[in-house]
Every structure is written in C-alpha cells, then in structure tokens.
Amino acid sequence: MDLISGRQIGRYLALLLVGVVVGVVGTGVHRAETPWGLVLALVTVAAAGVLARAWVGGVGILVIALGVFTTVSVLAGQGPGGDVLVALEPIGVIWYGGALAAGLAAVLPRRWFSADPVSQGAQP
Prior knowledge:
The chain crosses the membrane at residues 12-29, 35-52, 59-78, 84-108. Keywords: Membrane, Transmembrane, Transmembrane helix. This protein is mostly helical. It has a domain at 20-78 and 86-106. It is 56% helix and 0% strand. The protein is built from four helices and no strands. The protein has helices spanning 6-29, 36-55, 58-75, 90-96. Helix 1 packs across helix 3 (58-75) and helix 2 (36-55) runs antiparallel to helix 3 (58-75).
C-alpha cells in the first residue's frame, strides 16, 4: 500500500482551491446573461474536471466537484441582508447541481490522458 506523498497532498489542495474559485466565479456569472452565463459556468466546471483528471486522475475529479459543490452550497444560503445568490428557480437548481459537470471528464477516453506516444503505423 502506497502512502500519499506531500506532492500529492499539495495537488489535491490546489485542485480544491481551483474548485472553490470555479464555484465562486460560476455563482457570480450563472445568472449574468441567461442562459449563456450558466453555460459558461458549467463549461468552466467541466474544464476544471478535465484538468483534474489529467493532473492526478479520477480522485481529482471528486476533489474539484467537492470544491465546487461546497462553495455553491455556502453561497446559496441567505446573506446578512436576506439576499441569495442561488435562487430556487430552474437556472439556480441547474447551477446547484453543476458540480456534476466535472464528472464529464470521467467518461472521456483514457487514451486522451495517457502519456504514451501515439504510434504512427509501420515505419519504412
């Protein structure tokens, strides 16, 4: 059984920070220009998932999703003045489940994330 190295812990913490930043920015823009703000926010979450899978693998996707979901959950609560950033209307509910967009990276082909060189066929 391999122990987790300090480098791996650092990568997981960095991915968690990326998830938090994506969650904050996505929460800010998901209602900016309907529906394009939401689309942009979801594409950003999916891109963060691809980054995570390329960098550390499948566990990284979970870390990104955790960062996004936790951040959106915190920001969805009522603020001191009673305002909410994520309303219970269709666009807000879709964004609330937006952390699932990171999971799209899990269904991409494994060869896209492989460091093995692509063979060019028979060489003369």
